[in-house]
Design a protein that fits this description.
Rossmann fold, single chain, nucleotide-binding, ABC transporter ATP-binding protein, Alpha-Beta Plaits, 29% strand, alpha/beta, ATP hydrolysis activity, AAA+_ATPase
Length: 309
Amino acid sequence: MLQAIDLHKKFKTKEAVRKVNMQLEAGESVGLLGPNGAGKSTTISMLSSLIMPTNGEVLWNNVSVNKNPEALRKALGVVPQEIALYPELSAKENLHFFGRIYGLKGQLLVERTEEILQKIGLTDRKNDIVKTFSGGMKRRLNIGAALLHNPSILIMDEPTVGIDPQSRAYILDTVKQLVEEGMTLLYTSHYMEEVELLCDKIYIMDQGEIIAYGTKETLKSLVSDNQTIELKAHILSQKFEEALKKYFPTANIRKEDEILLITMPQNEEPLATIFAIAAKNAVTITSAIVKVPSLEDVFLHLTGRALRD
């Protein structure tokens, strides 16, 4: 559906993006993950035909966007990182303005405006001036403007930056609903948990390059296929540890301070057995936490630093 082939972008002497290859199929939800300055916004600007690549090509349904951007632009909705609204107009007036740009008019424009206001939860504020809105409300309206023309693909560039947790949760719920309805989505963020919640396939970007891609499970397997169980108990007896080692001979069992750590493959479900062994050895477990590799672990593994460093 949308494909990037060896995209490269240079601004004077700065290489912002180097040899980026990406692909989105119809109905896919794809995440582009990376820290600030990784090249995410430059990449999606090229994918959406806003800027031309220095080298490389973007294809929309196998047609070059570099040479013919109009087909993509008609099918595309873009939610930019910066708020792109007219603060002196009302929510409804903003939507009418952007709807007309997309070619909507008459009763269709009125109906689509009302549908979008309901979807983004701003029906009761539709006649209020946008400059009176909170940051979260402005971001919701920003999303609404991109949805007016029923796009077949939506690109969202960090749509939850700088807003309160309640507004962020509302936006994520809205985007999740769009994904469940079959929207093709490219979602950029430096929040691991957002991409993990919304996206089927993930590209990880750093310093202008794609350094890894795949499903969440594939990426996490780069770190480990293991899980670690953290156990706390009133008394962690030596007899209990020896019983666990006997029952799980391939597990790595070690004690750190007052916590017993058991590392084993993720395909095993050991908790019921662990609790049974504990009861047999008169050990009362007070806490059991199962930890599996996260996308944060993947990023640390690939770059040697945390995502927000």
